[in-house]
Amino acid sequence: MFKKALMGAVALTALAVGAAQAEDLKEFRIGILGGENEADRLRNFQCMVDQLPEVLGVEKVSLFPAADYDGVIQGLLGGTLDYAELGASGYAKIYLEDPKAVDPILTTVQTDGSTGYHSVMVARKDSGIATLEDMKGKKLGYADPDSTSGFLIPSVTLPKAINAKVEDFFSETGFGGGHENLVLEVLKGTFDAGTTWASGVGEFSDGYSSGNLHKMVEKGLVDMDDLVELWKSPLIPNGPVVVRTSMDDSMRQAFKAFMMELPKKDPACFSAIQGGDYTGYTEVTPAFYEPIIEARRAKIGS
To answer: 64 near 31, Cβ under 8 Å?
Structure first.
């Protein structure tokens, strides 16, 4: 057993050294989406900073927390980031601009075995708004223009749910500056309701098993007793783990192996970067995101 483990360790070390030498990459750059307190985002990804240098054979791992989704998107398009975890719409934006910029390699698996999540619309419970119909003539907040659950999916699926155009049904729409801030703005009364993301698995009182609401509950930023759910979208494909397409294959494989092993090897790190409970990762290709790519294409053309 010891001999097998030692041989495995030697093989991984050789792979890491070979990966770094093949590309002469001294720094591995991680993009982190906006929408959550920056200190929290940096803390959640610190475990990657601690572990990846040895795994990849690089001198350091740097974190780049963007102010919004587009900051990471532009970094990936420009080749200044090596890895990020995106929403499906964010990946679609990159794909439509340059399909060869990044490769989606993995996505998360929910605790119920699904590979999707939901957009949910929430309002203050004491607002008197209890149903989607009650939002007629009210102000709706979206999370971010490049968010799948916070904008794209609501904008293309709500018209069927309300049997009207969004601009005709709601008095006004706006953006909250990311998922966390959007919910806080709903609680402040800036918006009558807002769209954010949640697994849809588990209890609403917990903010579900994962997602923005779950993270906010864990941080003590929201009490779900203060909110009511007005609407839930159809299932949305979980966002991808993407890597720079030009990355050397040996480094890509070392990174992918690290990520696949992370849920069991370091569940605390896995939970921190994902923001909730998942069973692990599964492999994906661009084909998995075709419906979102087409939805984004249609939205751009509308």
So the answer is: yes
Q: Are 45 and 76 in contact (CB under 8 A)?
A: no
DSSP type of residue 80: -
| Residue 166 near residue 158, CB atoms below 8 Å | yes
Q: May I ask the CATH class of domain 27-111+238-300?
A: alpha beta
Q: What is the pLDDT of residue 34?
A: 82
Q: Which phi and psi (to 5°) does residue 209 adopt?
A: -85, -20
Say yes or no to pLDDT of 66 above 50. Answer: yes
- Position 12 pLDDT exceeds 80: no
DSSP 191: S
116-236 fold: D-Maltodextrin-Binding Protein; domain 2 (3.40.190)
Same fold, 27-111+238-300 and 116-236: yes
CB 149 within 8 A of CB 182: no
Its pTM stands at: 0.83
Q: Quote the strand ranges of 86-239, DSSP E.
A: 102-110, 116-124, 139-142, 172-175, 193-198, 227-232, 236-237
**Domain-by-domain residue ranges, the chain?**
27-111+238-300, 116-236
- For residue 65, the cross-strand partners are 32
d(CA 62, CA 240) in angstroms, rounded, equals 20
Interatomic CA distance for residues 109 and 97, integer angstroms: 28
Amino acid at 33: L
User: What burial letters (b/e) apply to 40-52, b meaning 16+ CB within 10 Å?
Assistant: bbeebbebbeebb
SS3 163: coil
Helix axes 88-97, 69-77, angle to 10 degrees: 40
DSSP secondary structure letter of residue 276: B
